[in-house]
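Recall that a protein's primary structure is simply its ordered list of amino acids. Everything else, from secondary elements to tertiary packing, is in principle encoded there. The following example makes that idea concrete.
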Amino acid sequence: MSTPTKLQVLLSKNRYLTLELQQVKAQHDEYLAEFIKHVKNMEQQHEMKFLKETEKKVQKSSKDSQTDRILKTLYHKIAVKAHPDKTNGDEDKTALYRQATRAHERSQTLELLDVCDQLDITIPNLPAKYYTQIEKSLNQLESEIQQLKRADCYLWGMADDQGKKKLEEHIVQATKQNK
């Protein structure tokens, strides 16, 4: 494989963190559903309102023209090697092509590099700033995982009965103090 060692390490870390994030998000969603039911019961029991509606903000990323050129070149190489019309029904390559298409649409350089690596496509020498950007992306993934793990519903879902009771008491106290 012609991928530089440092990039291979970063790509492996990205794969691991992506899988961990998927797992944590699935657990988080499961715990959130249980937690909301439980908190609604607490609201009735304590005659207090604990849940608030929150607003999600969507952040748009900016991209520069050099990144656009690199992404376009990588995407083209992937399409030549993995487009469904060229793979004779190879589902693995088709899945990689779809992954690359999503990454290209979202300007996710790291994802495209990962697909190139999996397809043994030569990755161009990247300037040092790209490694910095990749490491920043990995740090953001780690941060997102940690943020999900610190959510009340995740902590509640992971807790034993005694831990759940303490979290309930904390929620009731915090709500009383905020009134």
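Residues 54-63 have pLDDT under 50 and may be disordered. DSSP finds seven helices and no strands in the chain.
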